[in-house]
Amino acid sequence: MAGQSEELIIKARETHGLTRQEIVTLLGDASAEEQLARAADAVRHEFVGDGVHLRGLIEFSNICRQDCCYCGLRRENGRIERYRLTEDEIVELARKAKGYGYRTVVLQSGEDMHFSAPVMCRILRRIRQLDIAITLSIGERSREEYKAFREAGADRYLLRIETTDAALYHRYDPGMSHENRLRCLWDLRELGYEVGTGTLVGLPGQSLASLADDVLFYQELDADMIGIGPLIPNGDTPLGKAQPGDFHLTRRMVSILRLLLPEANIPATTAMETMVPRGREVILSSGANVVMPNVTEGDYRRKYALYPGKICVADTPADCRQCMQGRIAAMGRFVARDKGFRHHREAKI
Fold first, then answer.
1. Model-level pTM?
2. How far is CA 257 from CA 62, 128, 141, 193, 204, in A?
């Protein structure tokens, strides 16, 4: 296995292409993890450089119309303390984020339909005046709404598919349509967004072949951003007693994605550090180049409870910004000063 994996890593690094079975082989070979991470880190350096893009995350509502079995924001969770920020509060957090030095904000919420297209467009136009890039992460909307958001100033849209396995998707996202999720992603692609998506690793019944299909789909979509995180069971959800996702499998997935989509922006997710101390550094050394510190203030940070044990909920936004800059510098990397758009280019010499 070791010799085969070594050959596959070389192939992936040189051609940025693997078959489904070859991806399965690398995902399943724990002994190749460090070699895989080193190769991914080298490709990251060649294609996107040593800058780490910090994106200020504004979690502006934890109200959601959906009922996903793994998510603490799910509609039927009666134990969560719900909240919704005002338009002025959202814009003020974006203004503060710029003051902390962020060049991008990520506006994220549950699928809260209070934030209709006219409401969101007002918010987007106001934030646009701050001269910062805007990522939206507010779930499934119509093509017309996506078009309106784009015209009002949204640059990127993050919509994680979580799994491309239709049977798994329908099992864990009741009342939702896998076909509609794909429609949303392709609409976003066609409307000119930088498109972000990603996988939840560790869903019960998920196979290595399913994860490989996710990777191949991200290549087909030519995803600009790919967020990979492990399942962290939430006791207030139907998957509360499931086994947690595997940190090391998730790490191998990140590294493979860097090798196969060398230009993509890949975050070191908060969930990884919730599982393993200094987990973000581990993932940044395995192919990732983005971190999304939270700029939401006060008790709202605690209330946006996707999963238990979430790190940094007691920190201030200024603390998070300073902390991450120091940790990135300690790795020999630096905080990038641009807005972090994907650059389509050949490897840097």
1. 0.96
2. 30, 31, 27, 20, 22
